[in-house]
Every structure is written in C-alpha cells, then in structure tokens.
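User: Sequence recovery, please. Input:
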C-alpha cells in the first residue's frame, strides 16, 4: 500500500482505495487480519477515515468483522463463488448485448489493444489489470451505470482470487481465445453471440476460482 502523492491522501476515500487495491492484488490475502490502529499509524491519520473505509469494504463483502478476531479479509466459500459467478454471467451477458450496437471503432481498437497487452504482460498482476480493462472498455458503452457498479463489485470480490487461478496452465490462452471471439462478434454487430460467449467466459473463470477454493479447503 503506497502513500504516493494522491491528492485524496488523508481521506477515507484514499484509505479505501489503498486497502481495496491491497486486497484485490493479493497483498492482503483472504483471512489476513486488518488492524485499524496499524493502518491509521501507517497513513498518519485519525481512526475516523480508517473506520469509514473499513465500513465500506465490509459493505462490499471484502472484509468481515467478528468479536473474536476483529476485522479480517473476507474469504469466499465455494457456494459464494458459484453464486457470484452466475450473478456476473447474467449481468455481463446483458451488458455485452446492450453495448454492442453502441461500440465505436475507437472502442473496438482499445479493446483489441487490451487483448494485445495481456499477450505482452510480464506477470499475473498485469494480466488481471488488462483483463479488467478489456471488460470495462466494452461495458462502459452499455449506458447502464447501476448494472456496471454492481458488476464491478462482484468482479472485485472474485477477482482477488484470479491472481492465483491465472497461474493455471492454459488459463491465459483459453481466456484470450474467448476475448478474441467476443471482440469479433462485437465487430460483426452480433449482440446475441457476443453476450453468449461472454457468459461462457465468465462462468469458465468462476469455475477455476471454485476449483481453487475447493483445493484450498482440502489442504486445510
């Protein structure tokens, strides 16, 4: 969690962004303790903005509070991951179908650039970053801000497991092929086909997360 020169530094929004980034990047892993005093000392802040940031993260399902352990980074159960996956598949299929007629040549070019950036990525953090960019480029044209905010929250919750699943052999190749198929359907203006492939794509990613959670549970 870098202090940097963010103009929001010192606000609850800044703390929220830093903590959310640490959780989604895997720096703070599921089950990790969140110590309010330590965070306040790190950012040289009072406890008020830290507490507000933690409340927001709790509402997003990224941290949980318990009487015995205080705040910890939330872990997903297999059932929760399956539910989030299906939720994402339904909403992202809708967003894809809605965005296709609205995509410009610039949007399509940017989406293609995001795919190329994944091919060039040097590590899994970059892969996840450019993967998210590909989806955002398409969905922003759906003109459905409430859907988009809800999907983004679900993507973040599942996405913190993606850094581990992307290391699976063949995962990137499979995902990239689906990205290209989605983009080609968008270029043809085939909203139904693009939406169908997107739903398949989301479910495949979710299934890899479920497998990871299942394997971790067996180890424990």
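Assistant: Recovered sequence (220 residues):
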């Amino acid at each position: 969690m870098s202090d940097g020169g963010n103009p929001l530094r010192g606000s609850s929004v800044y703390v929220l962004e830093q903590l959310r980034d640490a959780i989604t990047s895997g720096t703070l892993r599921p089950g990790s303790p969140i110590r309010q005093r330590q965070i306040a000392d790190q950012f040289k802040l009072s406890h008020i903005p830290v507490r507000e940031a933690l409340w927001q993260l709790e509402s997003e399902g990224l941290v949980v509070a318990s009487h015995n352990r205080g705040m910890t980074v939330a872990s997903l159960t297999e059932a929760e991951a399956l539910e989030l996956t299906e939720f994402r598949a339904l909403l992202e299929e809708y967003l894809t179908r809605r965005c296709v007629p609205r995509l410009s040549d610039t949007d399509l070019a940017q989406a293609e650039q995001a795919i190329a950036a994944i091919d060039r990525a040097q590590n899994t953090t970059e892969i996840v970053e450019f993967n998210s960019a590909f989806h955002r480029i398409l969905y922003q044209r759906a003109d459905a801000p409430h859907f988009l905010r809800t999907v983004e929250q679900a993507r973040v919750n599942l996405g913190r497991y993606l850094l581990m699943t992307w290391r699976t052999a063949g995962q990137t190749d499979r995902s990239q092929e689906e990205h290209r198929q989605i983009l080609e359907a968008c270029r043809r203006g085939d909203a139904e086909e693009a939406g169908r492939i997107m739903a398949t794509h989301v479910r495949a990613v979710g299934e890899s997360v479920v497998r990871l959670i299942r394997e971790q549970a067996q180890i424990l």
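The chain has a mean pLDDT of 88.
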